[in-house]
Amino acid sequence: MKTSLGQRQLLLQKLSPQQIQLMKLLQIPTVLLEQRIKEEMETNPALEETDDEFADEQVDYEAGADAAGEEAAASNEADSEETQYSDDNFDLDDYLNGYMEDDPASYKERGESYQADEEEKTVPVAIENSFHEYLEQQISLLNLSNEREQTIAVQIIGSIDEDGYLRREPYAIADDLLFSQNLMIEEKEVVDILKKIQRLDPPGIGARDLQECLYIQLLIRIEQGEDLDDDELQALKVACKIINRQFEAFSKKHFEKLQRHFNLTEKQLRAAIHEILKLNPKPASGYIAGSMERSAQYIIPDFIVLNRDGELELTLNTRNAPDLRISDSFRDMLRNYNDQRKVNKLTRSQKETLQFIRQKIESARWFIDAIRQRHETMYKSMYAIMDYQTEYFLSGDEKKIRPMILQDIADRTGLDVSTISRVANSKYVQTEYGTRRLKEFFSESLQNSEGEEVSTLEVKKILTEIISAEDKRKPLSDDKLTQLLQEKGYNIARRTVAKYREQLNVPKASLRKEL
Length: 515
Prior knowledge:
- The chain has helices spanning 17-27, 30-43, 61-82, 92-101, 131-136, 147-159, 170-181, 187-197, 210-223, 230-245, 247-251, 255-262, 266-277, 283-294, 328-343, 348-388, 390-395, 406-413, 417-424, 456-468, 478-487, 494-503, and strands spanning 47-49, 303-308, 311-316, 324-326, 428-431, 434-437, 445-447, 453-455.
- It is α+β, with helices and mostly antiparallel strands.
- The strands form 3 sheets. It has a 4-stranded mixed beta sheet.
- Strand 5 (428-431) and strand 6 (434-437) form a beta hairpin.
- Helix 6 crosses helix 7, helix 15 (328-343) runs antiparallel to helix 16 (348-388) and helix 16 crosses helix 18 (406-413).
- The longest helix is centred in the last third of the chain and has 41 residues, at 348-388.
- The chain starts with 16 loop residues before the first helix and ends in a 12-residue tail after the last helix.
- 25% of the residues are buried.
- The model is unreliable at 53-90, 99-127 and 292-296 (pLDDT under 50).
């Protein structure tokens, strides 16, 4: 077998570390940007917040956005050349003059109109117990006889998922206890303890499926219903029978079948279903929602669009994030080593220290530059979106949202489609008509009967209005919805209507039926 050696040239494209860092920063929403900056400051001592003396240094986003690509390319080219120098031929004077003096390597996020008392930089965070800790705190209410039963209870609670259901079988929990605690547990013991746990708060906790979850809640309401009148108590008892014996018919809304099977009047059935609809299909959500409400979780917009007498004004939300610069102490150390190098040759230890300082300063400069480019790219992209959707931002009418895809904004900004996608991902814009995800402004187009291009968002809006106005006793089928849309001038197929309905999280007609 003969082998031969040869050379060949390949042209490969690779992202530099700075470009990768910028791409990652573009994906981060404003609410997480401060945390990312804090993490970088913890790992890089050469990076610090700016002092008041740098308050007059600002970034002109509109002007800087056009030059962002050229600056990034020049910076990457300079960085690649610098890495070729060794410690012996590296000129610290040129470095200090080129990067430390001419380029302040800092940025200012806020404008001159910003006042320090407009906000508090720290946001208090409420400390809450986790859901499982909340359940474990109630174990003392179960009247368990010994430590063995308490161990079983803790294991069961630890197996309950985030919705409040126990998806793990009792025999599997017994096996878990055997391997982790070396306890021989019978499956019946697990079931007995589980029944006690299912009486804890919130009601329905520890159920193994939806049917059991609803049934447990109904039983608890009946047991605790001293203040219920006869009609409410009767409705709860009927609801118990429906869930326990005819759950499938109920889930499919076969109301006539339920009336015949239980010999109910329409009024009695309506009252029973009304009680079922009060129940919580996800028992843990009540505790989690209350916890989130107590800790005051809000959406922080990345952009703010205001209407100034018919003129749209775009602001990049940079509040609650520190302004950055390279540490003076690292600058001074670098200068000191430079002065010392001119007098005496540096020792190996001093060279290593010098190399460390250079790396940290370069890393800090790259990060500052990436933050600056992030702001410029985000502003440029959002400005193009605002300009494209001017009619919506002026009126707030969702029907005036134009068909728009990522490529449309990429063409207007000169940025890559992947960059626009990163900007639009997980970002929010605050308008006078509410706060919306950027992704909601992107949609495909279709032609109406007049040959005009309209957004699929407009069609979905009209579809929602039609379904909201329908008779819930006789919900509209997808065929009927298609017919009504066609009468309004939107020529779309039934399968497209079904797809839009599913995207709107609207169930099919048989599941929208009400008494």
